[in-house]
Amino acid sequence: MTIENIVKTKQGTIVDVRTPGEFMGGHVVGSINIPLQEIEKRWDEIKSLKQPLVLCCASGGRSGQATQYLLQQGIECMNGGSWLDVNYYQTQNL
């Protein structure tokens, strides 16, 4: 399944790993803000989210780091790249 399909069909959870300030400046509707530096502290919350997780940030760098870490921990997830790309997928018709 592609990231686009997961987002369009709401089969997972969109997690934005930017800072709270960046998130407040704009984000994907329905996404959850878990900043990259808080991932380990919010482990129980992350485990309880509907998988697969689609991780996004400003450009894909931080979400790439988060994806790599979470995959190593057994979490089903994908790097969605920029939140603007993920937002675009969500606004397209099926």
Topology:
Elements: H1 3-9, E1 13-16, H2 20-24, E2 32-33, H3 43-48, E3 53-57, H4 61-72, E4 77-82, H5 83-91
Parallel strand pairs: 1-2, 1-3, 3-4
Helix pairs in contact: 1-5
Brief account:
By secondary structure, the chain is of the alpha/beta class. Helices cover 41% and strands 18% of the residues. The protein has helices spanning 3-9, 20-24, 43-48, 61-72, 83-91, and strands at 13-16, 32-33, 53-57, 77-82.
What labels would you give this structure?
94 residues; alpha/beta; Oxidized Rhodanese, domain 1; four-stranded parallel beta sheet; 5 helices; 41% helix
CATH secondary-structure class:
Alpha Beta
Helical coverage, percent range:
40-55%
The biggest beta sheet is recorded as: 4 strands, parallel
Structural class: alpha/beta
Q: How are strands sequenced across the largest beta sheet?
A: 2-1-3-4
N-to-C series of helices and strands: HEHEHEHEH
Number of domains: 1
Q: Mind explaining what this structure looks like?
A:
With 94 residues, the chain is α/β, with parallel strands linked by helices. The chain has a single domain, classed as Rhodanese-like domain (Oxidized Rhodanese, domain 1), CATH 3.40.250. 41% of the residues lie in helices and 18% in strands. The protein has helices at 3-9, 20-24, 43-48, 61-72, 83-91; strands at 13-16, 32-33, 53-57, 77-82. It has a 4-stranded parallel beta sheet, sandwiched between helices. Strand 3 (53-57), helix 4 and strand 4 form a beta-alpha-beta unit. Helix 1 (3-9) crosses helix 5. The longest helix is centred in the last third of the chain and has 12 residues, at 61-72. The relative contact order is 0.25.
